[in-house]
Design goal:
This protein has about 475 residues and is mainly alpha-helical. It has 27 helices and no strands. The relative contact order is 0.06. This is Tetratricopeptide repeat protein 38.
Length: about 475
């Protein structure tokens, strides 16, 4: 039986026998066609490796037995170098990682052009053509239009996970909380239990960002009952406990399921970051070795911004982290000119300010100012002048001890900060920055504002030790 199976898949010439046995679990050309998601290639191997890439992307886990995502991308290219969707997924994954800019990286820019040229030279399906269009729009920074195209795909093909996941990530970068929730809700009825992908975590995350915390927890727990190793469902529950300041429940949950989610190498560091937030809330000090270890090893943008955020929070709490800033600067400094997302830029600035690298800080701000003059279709650069640059300036003023100016810059943006992207938990850093600046300001009006912001925070997150610490600090400063 085994020999017959291997003989049947003799086209898998570039894979080892071990990998051959594994890829039987992935969808063939015929299986994709049967699901209404025809792939324009004659190679079964390319189809199965495309499925392997997609599965690892959704599970946030590189499967070492397959050579990880990079190994599967190489296998797709070897099986069919002209497979358009193979180029879409490989180039698209690099784009959504936001670790490189097509303005500066000619290899990435060339990969986008190559995909478009291949699509124009072949008779591919309308769905595939839309995928190419969405990827090209995203590469130009036109996130909203890219999402419109992915949503067009999902109208006719609601089980196209690549369109769903790419749009989910793009909505996240835009802080588009309701679309992130509704995009998944619209397709849920079309997914059957036999279809091998996790939707509960995606839907749960959209629910929690829309602040339906109880429903988000319920859906995530349903997902974990089906697939205990669904790191994204774990991540959603971690968010719920963070936003509700249920710290002991969060700590118990993360520790109890650590063995399930720590194997998801692309998300493990971020889940440790959530664990760290609970500890900062409770005791204000933490040695974030896990987050820093993953950040330095992976180079992942999610890991980089998490490490930056942790240090900034600790520094606002009065913890000395100057050595860690210097260490992290070696990771962030090469990205100073990228300007892929405002969210990333703000975190790079945290590091250069913390490391007292004033030249890098000025260079980042000036580069953003230049791009804001002629943003073109780039949605992030369009927002730079009204949101990104004032937020950068506020952080620089705070770093200089100019707390009055920090408040004047940051306070008008309170309800617009969502547009920089990220999650509520991640953006809370800037709420904390405004509170600290208001408390430290010599302006009595600002001090009163700081106390009011703390009352607001206490209403949203009752029993938060961090809020109570800040309230006590405000009383000590102003009495």
């Amino acid at each position: 039986m085994l020999k017959a199976a291997i003989k049947q898949c003799s086209s898998f010439t570039c894979l080892s026998t071990k990998i051959l046995l594994i890829v039987f679990n992935f969808r063939s050309l015929q299986a994709w066609r049967a699901e209404g998601l025809t792939l324009s290639t004659s190679s079964n191997e390319a189809c199965k490796m495309y499925d392997a890439i997609l599965t690892q992307y959704v599970k946030w886990r590189n499967d070492d037995s397959l050579g990880g995502i990079e190994g599967c991308i190489s296998a797709v290219q070897a099986a069919d170098p002209n497979f358009v969707m193979g180029h879409v997924i490989s180039t698209g994954l690099e784009l959504v990682a936001t670790t490189s800019s097509t303005r500066l990286n000619e290899r990435l820019s060339s990969a986008v052009r190559r995909t478009v040229e291949l699509a124009n030279s072949q008779d591919i399906t309308p769905r595939e053509r839309l995928h190419v269009k969405a990827m090209e729009l995203f590469s130009h920074g036109n996130f909203p239009k890219a999402c419109e195209v992915w949503e067009d795909i999902l109208l006719d093909h609601p089980t196209d996970m690549l369109a769903l996941k790419f749009s989910h990530d793009a909505y996240f970068y835009m802080g588009a909380q309701m679309p992130m929730r509704d995009s998944v809700a619209r397709v849920l009825p079309h997914w059957k239990p036999h279809i091998p992908f996790y939707l509960k975590g995606l839907y749960s995350f959209g629910l929690l960002e829309a602040r339906f915390y109880d429903q988000a927890e319920k859906v995530a727990m349903e997902g974990l009952a089906l697939t205990p190793d669904d790191a994204w469902s774990v991540h959603s529950v971690a968010h719920v406990y963070e936003m509700k300041a249920e710290l002991d429940k969060g700590l118990k949950f993360m520790e109890g399921r650590e063995k399930d989610w720590e194997v998801s190498d692309m998300l493990a560091s971020h889940n440790y970051w959530h664990w760290a937030l609970y500890l900062i809330e409770k005791v204000k000090m933490i040695m974030s070795f896990s987050v820093f270890r993953h950040c330095k090893a992976s180079g992942s943008m999610l890991d980089i911004v998490d490490a930056s955020s942790l240090l900034y929070r600790l520094e606002m709490e009065g913890v000395c982290v100057k050595d860690q800033w210097q260490e992290l600067l070696q990771v962030t400094q090469p990205h100073t000119d990228d300007h892929v997302t405002l969210f990333n830029d703000l975190h790079f600035l945290m590091v250069s300010l913390g490391a007292k690298e004033s030249g890098t800080s000025r260079r980042l701000l000036e580069g953003l100012q230049e791009l804001a003059k002629e943003p073109g279709d780039n949605q992030q650069h369009q927002m730079a002048g009204t949101i990104g640059i004032p937020m950068c300036q506020a952080m620089m003023e705070y770093n200089q001890g100019n707390y009055n100016q920090t408040v004047e810059l940051l306070h008008p943006l309170r309800y617009r900060m969502v547009d920089i992207g990220g999650s509520d938990a991640q953006r809370d850093l800037f709420n904390q920055l405004l509170i600290h600046a208001a408390m430290k300001s010599e302006n009595k009006h600002h001090q009163k504002l700081g106390r009011c912001l703390l009352v607001e925070r206490d209403a949203v997150r009752p029993n938060s030790p961090l809020t109570h610490r800040l309230m006590q600090k405000a009383l000590a400063l102003h009495n």
